Amino acid sequence: MKTDIIKLATIAEKKTKYIVGLMSGTSLDGLDIALCKIEGAGKSTQLTVEQFTTIEYNPSQKQLLGEHASKSQVNLKTLCQLNAWLGELYASLINNALKEWQVAADTVDLIASHGQTLYHCPKQAFADVEKLNSTLQIVDGDIIAAKTNIITIADFRQKHIAKGYEGAPLVQYGDYLLYSHTSIDRVLLNIGGISNLTYLPKNCTLTQSMSSDLGPGNTLVDQYCRHVLGLPFDENGEIASSGKIQLPFLEALLSHEFFDMPLPKSTGQELFNQTFVHHALDGKDYNHEDIITTLTEFTAITVANAVNELGTTELELYVSGGGIHNVFLMARIESHLNNRVLIKDFSQLGINPDAKEAALFALLANETVSGGSDALPFSMGKISLPT
Ligand SMILES: Nc1ncnc2c1ncn2[C@@H]1O[C@H](COP(=O)(O)OP(=O)(O)OP(=O)(O)O)[C@@H](O)[C@H]1O
Ligand SMILES: CC(=O)N[C@H]1[C@@H]2OC[C@@H](O2)[C@@H](O)[C@@H]1O[C@H](C)C(=O)O
Predict the structure, then answer these.
(1) Which letter, b or e, does each residue of 58-68 get, where b requires 16 or more Cβ atoms within 10 Å of its Cβ?
(2) Residue nearest to atom 11 of ligand 2 (CA)
(3) What is the pLDDT of residues 237-273, one digit of tens each?
(4) Angle of helix 2-13 relative to helix 356-370, nearest 10 degrees?
(5) Nearest CA owner, ligand 1 atom 31
(6) Distance (Å, rounded) from C-alpha 200 to C-alpha 209?
(7) Among 160, 203, 256, 368, which one is least packed by beta carbons within 10 Å?
(8) Range with lowest mean pLDDT among 145-154, 241-250, 331-340
(9) Domains of the chain with CATH codes
(10) Which reaction does this enzyme catalyse, per its entry (predicted)?
(11) Cβ–ligand 2 contact at 26 (below 6 Å)
């Protein structure tokens, strides 16, 4: 036991660390594994993604996760089993990836595990939750640590809650440390299941930067494709390109009170789901294409509105997340930005956009172990030891 603590103290002093970051997002598509080389800490951090893979969940795994994610009622027994089973699954996927990359486990300093969000409950969006923000990510760090023999830091969002925030987005910290610029205003947009952005005004401090969720990214189209059309998603936005925008439906979607709340805020599929779409449809019988086109336009408008409301005229906008592959969505965002903002691919910042979120958690683990309070105001994540 003490040897693990001494090892952790040695790791904390290392100038260069190898940290495996893990992320499984709200799309429930698979586990992202990023082996990151991290030099330094705080504002002098340099992060390189050395290896990256996404291991897609198989259909029965997706179904099991889907049955528990964002549901107000679940089977408690299977939830309990899921927590342990995901730990076993993650550990075996990490061990396999390291083997494939020919990386010895004892050269990896830490694993940083986000876990699977099952429920996200910020108090400002839930009338029945008067006093507390709460969020729940499962996958037990002890199982990952014991089965990989690597010290694991997991469950990053609870400290954010404990410090009075909503538990999300956490991306602000990584974006600020890695990408803030002395003379350029930057916006880093991520379009995953839920969309979010980080605003980094030129030469900003952490408190002058801001991250917020913006609303549904791909999740409503994904859910419609999956449940109604039997497709995983709208490949390249082809269905959206073939339909018409239905204005009454669009207006009903945009009338959700989340969009009246000021930034920063956070959300999830607890609010933006099939039931929300059903209410917005209000019994109208549009064809599938029109529904998908309108849902995609809804995402484009909410994203572009948030960027426009920042009030910055000259900025660099970098985009990551699976939504970048949706050609129709990206064209509509550009159009709602009045084509005055140059949209850049996140890879121009030197990182594979698909690896960005997994790398963020590697960076947060690095701060927890080696950071000073001059960089981030508090540590995040709980430490699990292998022995
Ligand atoms: N070729 C493609 N064409 C259109 N959409 C795509 C394509 N590839 C991925 N996507 C979209 O991207 C989604 C996955 O995005 P991503 O992996 O960024 O989400 P996530 O990380 O799970 O979500 P979050 O960031 O909310 O946690 C898919 O579900 C799909 O909607
Ligand atoms: C509760 C939760 O898991 N939120 C995720 C989700 O996926 C995107 C958006 O909603 C974001 O707020 C967050 O993830 C990113 C990585 C974050 O915390 O910055």
Answers:
(1) eeebbebbeeb
(2) 169
(3) 999 999 999 999 999 999 999 999 999 999 999 999 9
(4) 100
(5) 218
(6) 5
(7) 203
(8) 331-340
(9) 2-168+355-384 (3.30.420.40), 171-349 (3.30.420.40)
(10) 1,6-anhydro-N-acetyl-beta-muramate + ATP + H2O = N-acetyl-D-muramate 6-phosphate + ADP + H(+)
(11) yes
List residues bridging with 32 in a β-sheet. 23, 54
pLDDT digits (tens, 9 = 90+) for 60-77: 999 999 999 999 999 999
Complex ipTM value = 0.98
Task: Give the residue, by CA position, lying nearest to ligand 2 atom 9.
Answer: 194
Q: Is 53 annotated as a binding residue?
A: no
Query: Is the CB of 169 within 6 Å of ligand 2?
Result: yes
211 is in an annotated binding site: no
Q: Return the structure tokens found at 36.
A: 């990151």
Tell me the ligand closest to 215's alpha carbon. Answer: 2
Ligand 1 pocket residue status of 30, Cβ below 6 Å: no
Pairs from 225-231 (Cβ < 8 Å, separation ≥ 24):
225/292, 227/274, 228/288, 229/288
Percent of the chain scored above 70 by pLDDT? 99
**Is 290 one of the annotated binding-site residues?**
no
